[in-house]
Amino acid sequence: MKKTLITLFAAATMLTAVSTVQAGDAANGKGTVNKIDAETSTLNISHEAIPAIKWPAMTMDFKVADKKALSGIKAGQAVTFGLTKDAKTGYVISHIEPAK
């Protein structure tokens, strides 16, 4: 009985985690855009902790996988974003949108 409950709890936890991350994303984040460099497709973001990849809250630069993702994003804006892991450059933003 105890083993069954543990298995059910683990399955429910995994389903919850999957529902918050889009397909292909390693993790999702929330933060504030400090600076946008459209020429290099880079954003500087002060983000909250990202537990899925064990990152504490910090400010850092991110590359955007597709430059089109920058349209509609402004410095000073609160955003949510998804990260995918690129073998050469590390984590890149796969999608970004204004926080709701």
State the gist of this model.
This protein has 100 residues and is of the alpha+beta class.
- At the fold tier of CATH, the topology name is OB fold (Dihydrolipoamide Acetyltransferase, E2P)
- Strand content is 35-45%
Q: Please, how many helices?
A: 1
Low-confidence stretches: 5-20
Q: Cα-atom Rg, whole angstroms? A: 16 Å
**Which CATH-level-2 architecture?**
Beta Barrel
> Helicity, in percent?
10-25%
How many β-strand stretches? 5
Sequence of strands across the biggest β-sheet? 1-2-3-5-4
Mean pLDDT: 83
Q: Outline, from the CA principal axes?
A: globular
What characterizes the major β-sheet? Answer: 5 strands, mixed, barrel
Distance separating the two termini? 42 Å
- The topology string of helices and strands comes to HEEEEE
CATH class: Mainly Beta
Looking at this structure, what is the CATH superfamily?
Copper binding periplasmic protein CusF
Q: Which structural class matches the secondary elements?
A: alpha+beta
Number of discrete domains? 1
Descriptive notes:
By secondary structure, the protein is α+β, with helices and mostly antiparallel strands. It has a single domain (27-98), classed as Copper binding periplasmic protein CusF (OB fold (Dihydrolipoamide Acetyltransferase, E2P), Beta Barrel). 19% of the residues lie in helices and 42% in strands. The protein is built from one helix and five strands, in the order αβββββ. The chain has a five-stranded mixed beta barrel. Strand 4 (78-86) and strand 5 (90-98) form a beta hairpin. Residues 5-20 have low confidence and may be disordered.
